[in-house]
Amino acid sequence: MTDRAASVGRLFVVATGAIVAAVVGWIVFYEIPGSLADLVGVLLVVGVALLGIRVAGDYARTAFPDYNVGEVAVEGPITRDGGTPGPVPSRVVGAPADDVVEQIHAADEDDNVRALLVKLNTPGGQVVPSDDIRRAVDAFDGPTVAYATDTCASGGYWIASGCDELWAHEASLVGSIGVIGSRVNVAELADDLGVSYERFAAGEYKDAGVPLKELSEDDRDYLQGIVDEFYDDFVERVAEGRDMDPETIRDTEARVYLGETAHDVGLVDGLGSRDDVEESLETQLDEEVSVREFTPSRGLATRLRGGGQSLAYAFGAGLASAFDDDAEFRFRF
Questions:
Q1: Which residue range(s) make up the domain with 289?
Q2: Which of 63, 92, 110 is a domain's end point?
Q3: I need a surface site. Which of 50, 70, 198, 247 has the fewest CB within 10 A?
């Protein structure tokens, strides 16, 4: 169906729905109960007509779709609920993973959606929420294409590696395939203040990383082992998703690259704008592409705060994550 035919069809359905609703409203609320004041009747008719327009509009969008590609956005730090992960102070509002997953599922269940676009502008985020999004993308029934705008790092790249293709701008920052563990050490400060740490714990490593005590060598080996396991899993996932040699990924040493260099080392499939991405999809689908953005319902304040994310956070936090024990030791991809 052409765009013009779809537009005419939707207009006809909406107009018909409005007329029918107005007639019904007039009869039910004005003509039959003659005791109603004229003004009240007119207002009720208008209200029913507006409701009819809304219902008819929803039906028209379903009966005469004007899109065949769904788009979801992952913007800002990735967390379970959209808050800021990690120890970096910030008022950044990030991408709530559950909302993103829900929108991917909605696009997958929409019979009109034949392909999925994943827009990425994120420094990364918590481990499990990032993986939830990647799994949802991987399960999508159809072509999946990720495209990086400003930053696609760490958890963002984790998600991108689950897509069939990754596109970026020449000036996009891409990569940061690595893991970091962070811990604040205030043991000496505590001594100066006369604060002591007394241990009550079951399990030798239960308090590994507590800021009020110095790390033992066993604690260091234990925590480094977790970092290494995270890193091995990260490399394995990217190698599988990108069909790359794991050693090539390790050789990046968690660097971030500008888009052109990322393309040269094999981390990106194509360079270009959003239009270039859509042209590639048109070739894959063998038809003109029209995109519908699937977005969760958010208040205005949340949207405004989300615009405050900065490049400094991207460099400072990396894939801020998500494995912490009472906020004492934090692991970040």
A1: 69-180+255-325
A2: 63
A3: 198
